[in-house]
Amino acid sequence: MAAQYDVIVVGSGPGGYVAAIRASQLGMKTAVIERESLGGICLNWGCIPTKALLKSAQVFEYIKHSADYGITVSGESQADFGAVIKRSRGVADSMSKGVQFLMKKNKIDVISGVGKVKPGKKVDVTAADGKVTEYEAKHIIIATGGRARQLPSVPIDGTKVIEYRKAMTLEKRPDSLLVIGSGAIGVEFAYVYASMGTKVTIIEFLPNVVPVEDEDISKELAKQYKKLGVDIYTKSEVTKVDTSGQGCKVFVKTPDGEKTFDVDVVLSAAGVVANIENIGLEEVGINVDRGKIVTDDYYRTNVEGYYAIGDVTKGQALAHVASAEAIICIEKIAGQPHVEPLNYNNIPGCTYCTPEIASVGYTEKAAREAGYELKVGKFPFTASGKAKAAGTPEGFVKVIFDAKYGEFLGAHFIGNNVTEMIAEVVAARKLETTGEEILKAVHPHPTMSEAIKDATEAAYGEAIHL
Questions:
Q1: How far apart are CA 400 and CA 318, in angstroms?
Q2: Tell me: the pLDDT tens digits for 106-117?
Q3: What is the pLDDT of residues 54-65, one digit of tens each?
Q4: Does the global pTM surpass 0.90?
Q5: Among 157, 168, 113, which Cα is nearest to 3's?
Q6: Catalytic machinery residues
Q7: How far is CA 228 from the centre of its chain?
């Protein structure tokens, strides 16, 4: 007889393990199925280990510029690439063990193997030895995440043409690297490798790097990366990669004609695709549209008892989105009162390169296209006492308000540690805070966060420090 649960979650990433914990908290007998390591891609191969790599790169940059802070470091500083990679893997391993602890603490059964949903609210799990076991649940949540997108013209071989997982475990730092795509993954790895001495080239198909960001942010990042020595080609497309030689010969169509680049390694960072193949969707009859599982606002699929959260659904492919969806999904299943659908226009996006990028809400272009009359303010960190003292005056804060009602439409930051600042704007927008109220909220001095108030003053024509 099949083992029976109230909730079975297929996948243990930041959507899956959060769903399992919340279900257990609400009194449901819960199991989570994981084919690899608890924590999924985020904890093991994404969010966490990349931040460890980025921190090592940042520390190395500080050492190289220690004289700017009045500190003399004798001898030539060097980055031990192997040790950097080892530290990153250690951080990831410790976080995965933390999820193991949370599973035990919350009395959640962890089932190792590959899950496949079946009709009748059942799941088959194939273990490493090939044994198949059937499980049943009143509610089955699909949280199988995503993987690197493969471009038809750039097949990934795992050696010369790699994706992000290989990029964080290379045994040797390449002398040259070409990055295809300038989203968060692309620009973060570009910074890691460039700061450690690799010659990096970025190829972006769209007109701007980090193309989902406000255009002012994109321009500032491109300026800072060029100072770092990164070559950037926008409105450009990789048409072919020849790996027959010792390295890679990359053919790129640019606005100025075709160019070729000889590099050691190519990193394909052209986004992610959902892991929805071979998990039983067709057999169950679950609807899919453009590579994503179709759900309602509470993550119910068209088949009763089956749900989907995270990268397999239409929302932004971000860890914190998956976690928020998980809680909404479970609380609706449990019959909790006043469960609100997620507002996808108030999701913060963060990119952890140097300088960091953080944003939420409308870009200026999108707000104008939506018909708003705007009040827009910018405050450069060159005018911030905290940023100057920290030796990181690059970047700015940009805020966007509706001129008629003062609604906080969006905010866009680029600079040191700005990913720690964006939550203020997210909370303010959730609480329907106006620009006038931001002006009256006292911000501590000296801090980076007071630049939000300074930018708001600029938007309202009341700038004190500009």
A1: 23
A2: 999 999 999 999
A3: 999 999 999 988
A4: yes
A5: 113
A6: 445
A7: 23
